[in-house]
Amino acid sequence: MSEKEQNQENISNEESIKDQVEEILDEAIEEADSKDAAGDKSSSGNEQPDEKEQLKADLEKEKDKFLRLFAEFENYKRRTSKERVEMFKTASQDVIVSMLPVLDDFDRALGELKKAKDKELLKGVELISNKFRSTLRSKGLEEIEVKEGDTFDAEVHEAITQIPAPKDKLKGKIVDVVETGYKLGDRIIRYPKVVTGK
User: Fold this and answer.
1) Which of 15, 37, 166, 193 could form a disulfide with 179 if both were Cys (CB 3.0 to 4.6 A apart)?
2) Sign of the C-alpha dihedral, residues 11, 12, 15, 16?
3) One domain for residues 10 and 78
4) 89/149 same-domain check
5) Which range marks the domain in which residue 173 is found?
6) 88 & 146 share domain
7) Digits of tens for pLDDT over the chain (198 positions)?
8) What is the rounded distance in angstroms from the CA atom of residue 97 to the CA atom of residue 102?
9) Are 181 and 192 contacting, i.e. CB atoms less than 8 angstroms apart?
10) In whole angstroms, what separates CA 113 from the centre of its chain?
11) What predicted TM-score, i.e. pTM, was given to this entire model?
12) Cβ–Cβ contacts within 10 Å for residue 151, how many?
C-alpha cells in the first residue's frame, strides 16, 4: 500500500471515529432530554429543569472540547506530514548536490571529446551523460537557464567577476557563464556563476 493510500485510509478511519463520537454524544443528549421529560411528568420540583439544563450545558461543553481537540490533532497531523515530505526532499538534496561536480565533469569531457575525431567515444559518453541527467531530472533537478545577454539578478546569479563589456548592449548584463546553476524543486541548490559586463 502506498503512503498516499495509507494516508487516505487513516483520514477516512479518523472521520469515521469522529462521526461515531458525535453520534454517541447526540444520543446522550437525546437520552438526557427524554429522561428529563419523563421525570418532569412524574415530579413537579423546581430543581429538575435546572439540573437538566446543567447536564445539557456540560455535555455541549464536552462535545465542543472534543471537537476542538480533534481539529487540533488534525492540524498537527497535516503539519508533521508536510515536515516529513520536506525532510525527504532535503535528504535527497545532499545526494544531488554531491553529484553536481560529476555533471560538470561530463560537460568538460563532452567539450573535449567534440574536439577529438573519435565520434563513437563521443556518442558513448553522451549516452551516459544523458542517462545521468535524466535520472537527476526525475528526482526534481532542473538546470537554471542562463545565457549571454541575460539581465543580472543578484537573487538568482552569483557574479564572480566583472569585465569591460565587449559590446555596449552587454553593459550590466551577463557576459559569460562559468558554472551552471541548478534548482531542486523551487529551491536553488547551486547558483550559476557568471561574469558580468561593466
Assistant:
1) 193
2) negative
3) yes
4) no
5) 142-198
6) no
7) 555 555 556 566 667 777 777 777 777 777 767 765 655 555 544 556 688 888 888 888 988 888 999 899 999 999 999 888 877 777 788 889 999 999 999 999 998 998 888 889 999 999 999 999 999 999 889 999 998 888 888 889 999 989 988 888 888 889 999 999 999 888 899 999 999 988
8) 10
9) yes
10) 40
11) 0.55
12) 10
Dihedrals phi, psi of 46, to nearest 5 degrees:
-85, -15
* Beta strands 141-144 and 158-163, pairing class: unpaired
Whether residues 11 and 68 share a domain: the answer is yes
Amino acid in position 92: S
Q: Which three cell numbers stand for residue 90?
A: 532535503
* Count of CB atoms situated within 10 Å of the CB of 143: 14
- Alpha helices, DSSP H only, in the chain? 3-42, 47-115, 119-138
Q: Is residue 75 part of a domain?
A: yes
82 domain residue, yes or no: yes
Domain finish residue from 32, 62, 93: 93
**Residue 20: how many CA atoms within 13 Å on its side-chain side?**
6
For the chain, the straight-line distance linking the first and the last C-alpha, in angstroms and rounded, comes to 59
Tally the domains of the chain. 2
Tell me, yes or no, whether 37 lies in a domain: yes
Residues 26 and 87 in one domain: yes
87 and 149 assigned to the same domain: no
Helix (H), strand (E) at residue 196: strand 193-197
Shared-domain flag, residues 78 and 14: yes
Residue holding cell 439540573?
Answer: 51
Helices 3-42 and 47-115 meet at what angle, rounded to 10? 170
Q: Is the CB of residue 93 less than 8 Å from the CB of residue 184? A: yes
